[in-house]
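INTERNAL AUDIT FORM
Audit reference: QA-55
Scope: verify that the stored structure record matches its stored sequence.
Auditor: D.O.
Record contents follow.
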Amino acid sequence: MNRWVLAAEVIERSAMRYTPAGVPALDLKLKAESTVTEDGQPRKVSLEVRAVAIGAITRSVNALVLGEPVQCAGFLTTSRNGKGLVYHLTELA
């Protein structure tokens, strides 16, 4: 199963765009920082990930304030050019 849940903040958001089929799409960059346990030891982790919202969820994502914490869920896939990963948002909590 490819489902990823992430507590993060939106640090970048592009202007709304539309796919060739007319579906709204919004490109984002998310930043997450937390402490996790690895091999019984606490470890601070930080990451930035490219994300995209497509369809009806774009309205909710577009209303988020930059820097505001958000919990989101979705799936990971490779980018269209095959370089890196993109997090496709399907839900906001």
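Auditor finding: record pair retrieved intact. The mean pLDDT is 95.
Action required: none
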